[in-house]
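Morning!

This is the sequence you dropped in the shared folder:
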Amino acid sequence: MRILGRDRAKGEIRVLPETDDDIWHLYNVLCVGDIVTTSTARRDERADDRLRAERAPKRRMVLGVRIEKVEYDSEGLRIRLLGTIEAGPQDVGQHHTLVVEPGGPLTVGKAHWKQTQIDRLEAAAEETVKPRIVFVSLDQDEATVAVLRAYGLKEVATVRSMRSGKQYDEGGKPFDYHGEIVSKLRAVTEPDMPLVLLGPGFEKELLADDIRRLPKGTFGSVYVQHTGQCGMTGVNELIKSGLGAQILRESSVGVETEAVERLKGEIAKPDGMCAYGPAEIRAAAAAGAVETLLVLDAVLRERDLDDVIRAVETQRGRVITVSGEHEAGRELAALGGMGAITRYRTARVGQSQA
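The structure's back. Tokens below.
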């Protein structure tokens, strides 16, 4: 993410999303009521009636749209912003949909910027570009290829070994299980991207041997980890168990998962050092008792928690925004979307809504 400029008087920040992770960060910043200004394509509605009947071609123009709905497309890795045109060369007051993708600069205007929203943009801008992680979770029958992004895991391919059935491809040649996996990996990996092979049995070691025989630089570092299951279940097992801590220490998903597991452990204790529920968390934050505050990204989009976050950070507490796109985020959602690990045991208070 690049921050291209700020106009504090107008409440505007101009940014350039450069990666799909940046799109996720923007999704957690954009809200209904914001005015987003960017280049977009729209038909020229000023054309004469004859041209209207033939569907006038779209042309590029800069429009400012007041957002009425924000949609995140997890498959296309883009955001659709639906709203009404407030500024532009034509059709002011009409509805239009903006599509936000990597490489397209945009200006975001808000009546009020939450500090957490500014912090998120700045963190995205300051974060060094780190390779994402690719997982291959396999046994002798099937392999699942998944990519770890800032906001969660995405399954991208499944390869079957054909050992228990048809063992030849359409050309009549023996099916190359490991070769097919490598082909899928080439489509999703980038230079120096870590590769994690996991699963039960010895198939992962055999695949690792084949990968290491490839030309140097084909993939980044290769790690082999044992898990009791394969598929996406195996990947989640690896992340939750901490077996991949050395590999995952730089990833936000690893950090978030570890924090949620720790919170769950404290909640399970009769005298656990934790707080959950809005009222309990606010009381703990006001008392300076919060060591780590966990907040689901959806909760941050829906509520103004700047006062709680400032109270935690003022007392040198840590704030972790947890993505709802992976298993740990879904577990935090089941706890109400917020939780705090405290420095000492706090009194139980009512679970009123924020």
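Headline: The radius of gyration is 24 Å.

More detail when I'm at my desk.
O.
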